[in-house]
Design brief:
Layout lengths: L2 H9 L3 H12 L3 H14 L7 E6 L6 H14 L4 E7 L12 H4 L1 H4 L4 E7 L11 H10 L4 E5 L16 E6 L6 H4 L4 H4 L2 E4 L7 H17 L12 E4 L8 H18 L1 H28 L1 H15 L4 H13 L2
Parallel strand pairs: 1-4, 1-5, 2-3, 2-4, 5-6, 6-7
Helix pairs in contact: 1-2, 1-3, 2-3, 2-7, 13-14
Length: 325
């Protein structure tokens, strides 16, 4: 399908066109990249927006279980939900399991839901390089909420905060005390902290953990984009589907407040600026590796570094070679 045909299908809500379009934007081929840019240009005038929610947390915290329960909760309200799940890629083979549709069996059958797993490849920060463009495609297809599930490696997953409207951090019961919660990085970026598995024997532990993190959040400097009482720590149970309504109410309240203050649009504008700069950086790196002379110089300097030359000195010479071109 041509970019024009894909755009027509996406605007009409065609899932097959959406799936093909995400495959197109994730491709590394130069001709595919040109087609992807044409497609995104076609969708831009529609101006459709969804609530973008980033979800992060360590492996085993129950991200997939929560997303299935929360996604089903939203579709029951008549909302269309897209899930972009990023799976870690093997450093050896480059492959990914991509098993999120299997883990979210009920949600994957929901006619109001769309689930797309993608490999992280070599991209750091918990998301894939083209996740932001996949979000734009889902918005063009008319989805009301886009859930972005990160790789799940902990403190380094901060890049997702630069592409979402709300950043939700999932935690497990008894995962740390109040001092653990003061950690900078991912904790500072969270808009909402949800302690999952608040059921059965873990319910009491989840309540204590929630209280610990609520206390820790009070020690962090108040952010200008937050009303009183945010960031907030709450308990949820994906298994028993408890706490989903209050969590959604908190998300709506925070989003509504930011829109009323003009912070919602400002944040999106800042994110667009960030991704413009990131795209330029990535393009420069790609151009560097595509040039034959640059590759030869990199290879030569790399061998010298292996033999003991200081890396910073070799990097200075490489930059000097580029400046002279």
């Amino acid at each position: 399908m041509t970019p024009e045909e894909l755009a027509t299908g996406i605007l009409a809500g065609n899932r097959r066109a959406l799936a093909r379009a995400i495959t197109l934007v994730e491709s590394g081929r130069a001709d595919h990249r040109e087609a992807a840019l044409r497609l995104l240009d076609r969708l831009a005038p529609a101006g459709r927006q969804a609530l973008r929610i980033g979800l992060s947390g360590t492996p085993g915290v129950g991200k997939s279980s929560f997303i299935e329960a929360f996604g089903s909760f939203l579709t029951a309200k008549g909302l269309k939900v897209a899930v972009l799940a990023v799976d870690p890629s093997s450093a050896r083979s480059g492959g990914s399991i991509l098993g999120d549709k299997t883990r979210m069996e009920r949600l994957s059958r929901d006619p109001l839901a769309f689930i797309r797993p993608s490999p992280s490849q070599t991209h750091l920060g918990g998301v894939a390089r083209r996740t932001r463009e996949a979000v734009a495609l889902c918005e063009g297809a008319g989805f009301d909420v886009v859930l972005i599930e990160t790789v799940g490696v902990g403190q380094s997953e901060t890049m997702v905060a630069g592409m979402c409207d709300l950043f939700v951090l999932l935690l497990a019961p008894a995962g740390g005390d109040e001092l653990q919660g003061v950690k900078r990085g991912i904790m500072e970026m969270a808009d909402l902290i949800l302690v999952n598995k608040a059921d059965g024997d873990l319910k009491a532990a989840a309540t204590r953990t929630c209280a610990d993190y609520a206390g820790a959040l009070k020690l962090l400097r108040k952010r200008p984009q937050d009303p009183e009482g945010y960031p907030r720590a709450m308990t949820v149970s994906a298994l028993e589907e408890q706490g989903l309504e209050p969590a959604w109410a908190a998300m709506e309240e925070l989003t509504g407040w930011r829109k009323a203050k003009g912070l919602f649009a400002t944040r999106r504008a800042e994110q667009a600026r960030h991704w413009f700069e990131e795209e330029v950086r990535q393009a420069l790196l790609a151009r560097l590796t595509a040039d034959a002379d640059s590759r030869k110089a990199m290879e030569r300097l790399g061998r010298e570094v292996e033999k003991g030359r200081p890396p910073s000195d070799a990097a200075r010479e490489m930059l000097g070679l580029l400046d002279r071109r």
